Amino acid sequence: MRNPVQLIRSVLFIVQMYLAMVVLAIVFTPFAIFRRDMALLACHTYCRYVRWSAAWMIGLRSEVRGTVPDGPVLIAAKHQCFFDILIIFGALPRPRFIMKKQLKYAPILGWYALQVGCVPVDRGKRGQAIRQMVKGVRNSPAGPGQLIIYPQGTRVAPGAHLPYKVGTAVLYEQLGQDCVPVATNVGVFWPRHGLMRKPGLAVVEFLPAIPAGKPARAFLTELEEVIETRSDALMADAGFERDKT
Length: 245
What we know:
It is a single chain. This protein is α/β, with parallel strands linked by helices and 245 residues long. The chain has a single domain, classed as Glycerol-3-phosphate (1)-acyltransferase (3-Layer(aba) Sandwich), CATH 3.40.1130.10. The protein is 46% helix and 16% strand. The protein contains 7 helices and 7 strands, in the order ααββαβαβαβαββα. It has helices spanning 4-32, 36-57, 82-91, 109-115, 126-138, 166-175, 216-237; strands at 60-66, 73-77, 95-100, 119-121, 146-149, 179-184, 200-206. The chain has a 7-stranded mixed β-sheet with strand order 1-7-6-2-5-3-4, sandwiched between helices. The longest helix is centred in the N-terminal third of the chain and has 29 residues, at 4-32.
């Protein structure tokens, strides 16, 4: 049965979260227009604020585990909801995302994403999207950093299965960089749809890097195994029970 008090807290949290986005955008934009590092500071500030406000407003604490990379590297992350984006982005010193092209038109988010060096791609055109990814990463005005990609291409609810896409393997091969897998249990507390946010401990865990140079197929198999296995364990620790029917 739903907890009406938690639902009210969740709604208030969501409203203030987006209001804070607008306020921070207004404060930082005059500086971020001219300085890319100020745009990054604005995004990091927002990530920290949402994590802080989630802890006291809805009882959703968050924790980053593992070794956070600070050099140029490919980050392949499990994606369950908006919150895992904020936790991962806020933990990395120079992060940027592979994002769907439509997001660059989103108010506030789109402009800041482009300013910090995120790479928009058209997900509906597979071959073209892969070429766009590689070209966008190599020509990014933001310079080297931590490139974040979601191997499954979209948010995936806890317990659901979606295959890992070849684009991650292509980037891994062509960039010649190590790949750091990232597991999470965030979706247990913050669902893809709906307003309810549950209290608990949301975890994002950076796993040991997969060294550059492995064959694409072997890389993708290993990536899926380590991310899914660790994510399942984190979700089980959070009390999630997979439907066995």
